[in-house]
Design goal:
This protein starts with 6 loop residues before the first helix and ends with a strand. Helix 1 runs antiparallel to helix 2 (28-35), helix 5 runs antiparallel to helix 6 and helix 5 (89-110) packs across helix 9. The protein is of the alpha/beta class and 821 residues long. Strands 10-11-12-8-13-14 form a six-stranded mixed beta sheet, sandwiched between helices. It is 49% helix and 15% strand. Strand 15 and strand 16 (657-665) form a beta hairpin.
Length: 821
C-alpha cells in the first residue's frame, strides 16, 4: 500500500499473512484473489468486507458453509467462448462442473435468512445453475470427455461404419496369422499398429511370403513390420471414415459452443462470484484459526482505536495460541485529545512487535480480515499507514542506519495528515543521543500537529516527559519482571518505562565491574528526573482519588438498581397471584361444566348412538377452546427472567415444535426483541422469545396422557376412508408442522418389492407406536407409483394413525409420506 513501509512490516509480514490466507482457499480463482488481496480505500467498502467475513464465520460455526472445491480454472475457456473460438469436450465438462458447484452454493445461500446474512445473500442473484444447459452437455459428452454416439445421427452412422471396417481388418489379419503358409513367416502370431497402420511382425528373411508395405523394423533389423495388401484398402477406408468422424465431432462441439455462447455473461459472473465467495470463506477460515473478531468501526473525524486483548496474527499462526501475550491498546477513545503514543521499555521487551501489531491491524481491517482481539474492540479506518520500522542500513548506497531512517522520515513528514497512522521504531536513534532526542521530539510535535496518529518507540528519557506537559501525548511501557529479570511483554498505558540496559546486560553475563560503574554513572542523572517523577506521583494520586469517588458512585447506583429490581419482582409476584386466583375460580367453573358433559356422555352411551357421543365431545372441545385462556399465557412465562433458564423444555408456537432452550440473546432497545436458541431434534432453531411457550413437567406429562387417550379413542372415531392427496382431507390443522428427520423416525423403501416393503413398513409403524415416535417419514420415491399407492393404502387401513400427508417440496414432495401416530 505504501513504499514507506519497511520490509519487515509491509512486504514481509503482510505477504506472509497472505500466504496463510491463500492456503485456505479451495480454488485457483479464490487463491488468485487471496494472493492479490490489497486494502480498500473507503469506510463503506471496509465495512462490507468485514461483514462478509463475519457472516461466513457464523456459517462455518453452524456447519452450514459452502465449498468451492473442484472449481476448474475457466479464464481461458470463457475468453475463447466470448471470442467465438472452438472449445474441446473437456472444456464443456469444466463448464458443467462450474454450473453444478454454482448451483449448490446458490441453493445454500437461498436457505439463509436475509436479515441475518444481508451481505452474503446478495451474491445469490449472481450465481446460476442453468440445468437445461447441463442437460444439453450431458446429451452430447460423457464423463470421460467423449462425444456420445447419440450426439447426432450422422456420428452414429459413421462410427458404425468405422467399427465394421475395423472388424473386417481384424478378420483379414487373423486369416494371415492362422494361415498355415503365411504364419511361418511371422515373428509372433499377433498384429499391431505402427504409424497409424495395421501391421504384422515378419521375419526379415521371409519378407516375400507376405506381400505388403513395410512401415517399420526392429532395432536389430531381424523383424520388419508389414502392412498386408489384403488390409491396405480397408485401412485407407477406415482412416477416411475417422476423418469424417472428427469433422462431425468438431461440428457438434461448435454447435454446442454456439448454444452456450449466449450464456457467457452469466457463466462469467457465476465463475467470478464462486471465486469471490471462496476468497471470503478463506478469510473466515483463517480468522477461526487465530480467533479473529470484527471490531466496531468508528466513523468520525477523530482518529482513535481500542484493541482488547490484541495479539499479532502471525505469532498465533506460527505458535501455540495460548502462549502469545495479549495486550489492551487504547488511544483516543477515552480522551479524544490523544494523538501520539510514546512506548518505552526494555530491549527485547516486545515494543517492535506491539508496533507491528497496530500496523498490521490497520491493513487487515481494510482487507476484510477479522482481528485477533476480544469483544469490545473498535477502530478508525486509517486512510494511509506510514511506517519506519527496522534497521535499513544500506552498503550499496553507503547509507548509515541514521541516514536510512531519515530518508523514510523525510517522506513520512511530507505525507502525514489527518487520518494517517504513523509508526516509528526507535525514533531518533543512530546518532548523538542529545541531538537524536531533540530531533525526535520536534518530529513528534510536527506529526501531532499535522493531525496524524503516531505510535513511536524510544529509549530517550526526554520523550517520556512530553506526556506530562500536554494531554495530546500518551506514555506507554512494556513491563519488566525484576525478580526473573525478564520482560513480560505486557503493555501499561499512562506509565513510562525504563530501558533496563544494565539489568539486561547483567543477565546476559557482562562483567560485574562494568555493571557497577554504569550504575554509579546513572546515579548522577537521576536527580534530573526527580521533578518529573514527583509530578507523575502527584497525578497518579489524583487519579486514585477519582477512582475511589467513581467506585462509591457505582456502589450507590448498584444499590438503587437492586432496590428497583426487588420492587419490580414484588409487583410481578402480586400480579401473578391475582391471575392465578382468577384462573383457579374459572377452572372450577370449567370442571363443573366438564362433569356435566361427562354425565351427558354417559347417558348417551346407554343408548348406543356414537354420533351423539361424538357431538357431545365436540361441544366439550369447543367449551375448552373458549376457556383456553385459563391456561398459562405463553408470554407470562417470560415476565420474570428468573424463570427462564437453559435446559428448560419449551414449545415453539409458530412451528408447533417442542425442544430444549439452549440460550437467549438479550436485545437492547424498545423496538428490538430477544432471540432464543432452541434445540429441536438435530436442529437448532433461532426464534423470537415471544414465540416460545414454557412446558412444565406436569404439562408435558399431561400432554403425553392426552396423546395416549387420543390413541384409544382414535381407533373408534377415525374414518377408514382410502388415502387421498386432497389437502382438505389430509390437513386438518391450521398450525405449521415442521418434520425434523432423524435415523429413528425415517424408513427408506425405495427399490424394494411391494410385499417386502409392506412387511418392513408394518414393523416400522409398530416400533413407532411402541416408542411414541411421531411424526415419521416413509420414503418410497415416485417411480411408477405402485409402491407409493401400496404404502398409502396400507397406512389408510391402520387405525393407530392420526394423520397422513405427502411431503412438502422441501421434504421430498410426493416421493415421501409423513405420518402422525
Amino acid at each position: 500500500m505504501d513504499e514507506l513501509t519497511a520490509k519487515t512490516y509491509r512486504s514481509l509480514e503482510w505477504e506472509r499473512l497472505k500466504s496463510y490466507l491463500t492456503a485456505e482457499a479451495e480454488s485457483d480463482c479464490g487463491r488468485k484473489l487471496c494472493i492479490g488481496l490489497e486494502p480498500v480505500d473507503s469506510f463503506e467498502e471496509t465495512a462490507r468486507l468485514l461483514d462478509e467475513t463475519e457472516e461466513i464465520v457464523y456459517m462455518i460455526q453452524a456447519r452450514s458453509g459452502f465449498s468451492a472445491a473442484g472449481l476448474p480454472t475457466l479464464d481461458e475457456q470463457l475468453s475463447r467462448l466470448q471470442a467465438g473460438a472452438s472449445l474441446t469436450a473437456q472444456d464443456f465438462l469444466q463448464i458443467k462442473s462450474l454450473l453444478k458447484i454454482s448451483g449448490l452454493i446458490k441453493t445454500g445461500i437461498s436457505l439463509l435468512p436475509q436479515e441475518s446474512f444481508p451481505r452474503i445473500t446478495r451474491y445469490e442473484r449472481l450465481l446460476v445453475s442453468l440445468p437445461s444447459l447441463v442437460a444439453v452437455i450431458d446429451n452430447v459428452i460423457d464423463d470421460g470427455a467423449n462425444v456420445l454416439d447419440t450426439a447426432s445421427d450422422l456420428l452414429f452412422q459413421l462410427r458404425q461404419e468405422a467399427a465394421r471396417l475395423q472388424s473386417q481388418i481384424s478378420s483379414e489379419l487373423q486369416k494371415i496369422i492362422q494361415s498355415s503358409s503365411q504364419s511361418k513367416a511371422l515373428q509372433e502370431p499377433i498384429y499391431t499398429i505402427r504409424n497409424g497402420r495395421f501391421v504384422v511382425p515378419v521375419n526379415a528373411s521371409h519378407r516375400a511370403v507376405i506381400p505388403g508395405i513395410v512401415h517399420d523394423s526392429s532395432a536389430s533389423g531381424l523383424t520388419i513390420y508389414v502392412e498386408p495388401l489384403a488390409v491396405l484398402e480397408l485401412a485407407n477406408k477406415k482412416r477416411l471414415k475417422e476423418s469424417e468422424i472428427e469433422r462431425e465431432i468438431a461440428r457438434i462441439l461448435d454447435e454446442l459452443a454456439e448454444r452456450i455462447r449466449g450464456h457467457h455473461d452469466e457463466l462469467e459472473n457465476s465463475y467470478r462470484t464462486v471465486g469471490c465467495l471462496d476468497a471470503i470463506s478463506a478469510r473466515a477460515r483463517l480468522a477461526l484459526k487465530y480467533d479473529g473478531r470484527k471490531p466496531e468501526l468508528i466513523k468520525n473525524d477523530v482518529t482513535s482505536f481500542v484493541y482488547r486483548q490484541a495479539r499479532h496474527p502471525l505469532l498465533i499462526l506460527q505458535s501455540d495460541k495460548e502462549s502469545v501475550i495479549a495486550n489492551d491498546i487504547d488511544i483516543g477513545v477515552q480522551n479524544k485529545l490523544e494523538r501520539t503514543l510514546i512506548i518505552t521499555g526494555p530491549n527485547t521487551g516486545g515494543k517492535t512487535v506491539l508496533l507491528k501489531t497496530i500496523g498490521i491491524f490497520a491493513l487487515m481491517m481494510r482487507a476484510g480480515l477479522l482481528l485477533p482481539t476480544a469483544q469490545g474492540s473498535s477502530a478508525t479506518i486509517f486512510a494511509e499507514v506510514l511506517a519506519d520500522i527496522g534497521d535499513e542500513q544500506s552498503l550499496e548506497q553507503s547509507l548509515s542506519t541514521f541516514s536510512s531512517h531519515m530518508q523514510n522520515i523525510v517522506r513520512i513528514v511530507a505525507r502525514s495528515r489527518q487520518g494517517t497512522l504513523v509508526l516509528l521504531d526507535e525514533v531518533g536513534a543512530g546518532t548523538d543521543p542529545r541531538e537524536g532526542a531533540a530531533l525526535a521530539k520536534a518530529l513528534l510535535e510536527h506529526l501531532t500537529a499535522s493531525g496524524a496518529m503516531t505510535i513511536a518507540t524510544t529509549h530517550f528519557s526526554e520523550l517520556k516527559t512530553m506526556a506530562y506537559s500536554e494531554p495530546i501525548y500518551v506514555n506507554g511501557s512494556l513491563e519488566f519482571d525484576e525478580i526473573t529479570l525478564s520482560p513480560s511483554y505486557r503493555l501499561r498505558l499512562g506509565i513510562p518505562g525504563s530501558s533496563k540496559a544494565t539489568t539486561i546486560a547483567h543477565r546476559l553475563g557482562l562483567n560485574e565491574a562494568v555493571i557497577n560503574r554504569a550504575n554509579e554513572l546513572l546515579e548522577t542523572d537521576k536527580e534530573d528526573l526527580q521533578t518529573t517523577i514527583e509530578l507523575l506521583e502527584e497525578r497518579l494520586a489524583t487519579l486514585r482519588n477519582k477512582d475511589e469517588e467513581l467506585a462509591l458512585a457505582i456502589e450507590e447506583a448498584k444499590a438503587q438498581k437492586d432496590l428497583y429490581e426487588k420492587q419490580l419482582h414484588d409487583e410481578n409476584q402480586k400480579a401473578e397471584r391475582t391471575r392465578t386466583n382468577l384462573a383457579a375460580k374459572l377452572e372450577e367453573e370449567f370442571n363443573l361444566s366438564r362433569d356435566y358433559v361427562r354425565h351427558l356422555i354417559a347417558d348417551l352411551q346407554k343408548e348406543p348412538s356414537i354420533a351423539k357421543a361424538q357431538k357431545v365431545q365436540k361441544e366439550l372441545a369447543t367449551l375448552r377452546k373458549e376457556l383456553g385462556w385459563l391456561e398459562q399465557r405463553p408470554d407470562a412465562v417470560f415476565e420474570s427472567k428468573n424463570r427462564l433458564q437453559p435446559g428448560q423444555s419449551v414449545k415453539v408456537r409458530s412451528l408447533n415444535q417442542r425442544g430444549v432452550l439452549q440460550s437467549v440473546d438479550e436485545k437492547k432497545g424498545a423496538e428490538q426483541e430477544s432471540v432464543a436458541h432452541v434445540k429441536a431434534g438435530n436442529l437448532t432453531l433461532k426464534v423470537p422469545l415471544s414465540d416460545l411457550e414454557l412446558l412444565s413437567d406436569s404439562k408435558q406429562d399431561s400432554s403425553l396422557g392426552k396423546q395416549s387417550a387420543r390413541k384409544g379413542s382414535h381407533r373408534n372415531a377415525r374414518s377408514h376412508a382410502p388415502y387421498t392427496s386432497d389437502a382438505t382431507n389430509i390437513a386438518h390443522s391450521n398450525q405449521v408442522r415442521v418434520f425434523v428427520r432423524t435415523g429413528d423416525n425415517t424408513i427408506d423403501l425405495r427399490g424394494q418389492r411391494v410385499d417386502e416393503a409392506l412387511s418392513r413398513l408394518d414393523q416400522f409403524i409398530n416400533e413407532a407406536i411402541v416408542h411414541e415416535r411421531s411424526p415419521v417419514m416413509i420414503i418410497h420415491g415416485h417411480g411408477t407409483g405402485a409402491l407409493r399407492n401400496a404404502v398409502r393404502d396400507a397406512l389408510a387401513s391402520n387405525n393407530s394413525l392420526e394423520r397422513i400427508r405427502p411431503g412438502e417440496n422441501y421434504e421430498g414432495g410426493d416421493g415421501v409420506t409423513i405420518v402422525e401416530i
